[in-house]
Amino acid sequence: MTTSIPAPTLPPGPRSVIPFRYLRTLQRDPIPFLSGVAREYGDAAQFFVGPQQIFLFNHPDLIRELLVTQHRAFHKSRVLQRSKIIFGEGLLTSEEEFHRRQRRLAQPAFHRERIAHYGEVMIDRAARLQETWRDGEELDVHREMMGLTLSVVAKTLFDADVDEDADAIGKALTELVDLFPALMNPLANLLRKLPLPQTMRFRRSIEMLDRTVYAIIEERRKSGDDRGDLLSMLLLAVDEEGDGGAMSNLQLRDEAMTLFLAGHETTANALAWTWYLLSQNPDALAAMHRELDEVLGDRLPVPNDYARLPYTEMVVAESMRMFPPAWAVSRLAMEDVMIGEWLVPAGAVVIAAQAVTHRDPRWWPEPDRFDPLRFTAEAKAARPKMAYFPFGAGPRICIGEGFAWMEAVLIVATIAQKWRLELISRDVQAQASITLRPRGGIRMRLRLRV
């Protein structure tokens, strides 16, 4: 007598007889939809957008399997593959051996000692910005942080000052981000070939950024200088574990574009959301001010202060919990693979959404409440590690994670030492595009600390 093994079952999920019913929702306002699916169907759910099968995993154990233990069974999803028009074969989009080679070449640029050097730039640019502010002035803090992080990434990546071109570069980057949801359209490849207004804006933005990046690469190749920036490290890098080769101009462009957009956009969003949350939570703001006064007194921070500002870091961590700049990761199954008890067939897309998991009340009691003390060592030890993954996890974890933590903490410390930011906007909404931005910005009033 033989015993039959039950076939793996599919998780539950919403159903619709309308083939693309959920597409517009995923393009326009995906986080409420995914949050609702997780609430109704639990740790694993699946649904269809046309013929595309999509899984949503919301338990830390399942997310760990997806991103860490079973990562070789997955590639980046088709949406990110379409974004190769922006990033080429950069670290965000490349796969398998090519990705491993590029990561080996880029890794030295992000060593701890190198990042400490970049910290000086972060503090200097934040100090310069705040010197232009005036007590009582009203401004869009998101726009201010975008300009600040653009200045930081241009200096640390290219050793370039882009103040004169900042508006044009910032506009081009914003165009790319705003048009990114169009890449989710099943007809995206066709639409890109048509002379539509948004297609033309998209092309102009990429061409403008390409001209900027290629001009800097060409100038640097001619000079042969090591200026201590990321580009110098990438130019000098040799793949000693592999073919012994260096990066071509195209590879340099792809990595530079990836770091340029990712390093500028995500940190600016994290900072903007941090000011927004601090303005509504006076107790947390007061606690952070006490730490800054005790550690810094009247002097500006230095890079070594980063390790001496644990509460300020917890403030940033809690901000990225509530408004994760990278709000979801998605993967394409390249083969049939078991994730937990669920069979994910080849061709299916799997989503793990930070914006959903980071507000799961099982791991985050009162998830809509801002509380930096969730990130004490004791609190972190008490919950599953993958309940919080703002930079992803596994071999594809963001290579610039250490850079981003230092940048956010040192900028917050530099500005908060001198300024309080009062919220003016009353209807601040999150916009989920390639990153999680505040829709329409965040209006705030500057107040000197007394």
Which terms would index this structure?
12 strands; globular; alpha+beta; 3-stranded antiparallel β-sheet; 5-stranded mixed β-sheet
Question: What does this protein look like?
Answer:
The protein is an alpha+beta fold. The protein has a single domain, classed as Cytochrome p450 (Orthogonal Bundle), CATH 1.10.630.10. It contains 18 helices and twelve strands. It has helices spanning 23-28, 30-41, 60-69, 78-82, 84-87, 96-106, 112-131, 141-158, 166-179, 188-191, 197-223, 230-236, 249-279, 282-296, 310-322, 354-357, 377-381, 401-416; strands spanning 44-49, 52-57, 74-76, 138-140, 329-333, 337-339, 342-344, 349-352, 419-423, 430-432, 436-438, 443-448. The strands form four sheets. It has a five-stranded mixed beta sheet with strand order 1-2-8-5-3. It has a three-stranded antiparallel beta sheet with strand order 4-12-9. A hairpin with a 2-residue loop joins strand 1 and strand 2 (52-57). The longest helix has 31 residues, at 249-279. Residues 1-6 have low confidence and may be disordered.
Q: For the record, give the distance between the C-alpha atoms at the N and C termini, rounded to a whole number.
A: 84 Å
| Share in helix | 40-55%
The CATH class is Mainly Alpha
Q: Into how many domains do the coordinates divide?
A: 1
Low-confidence stretches: 1-6
Number of helices: 18
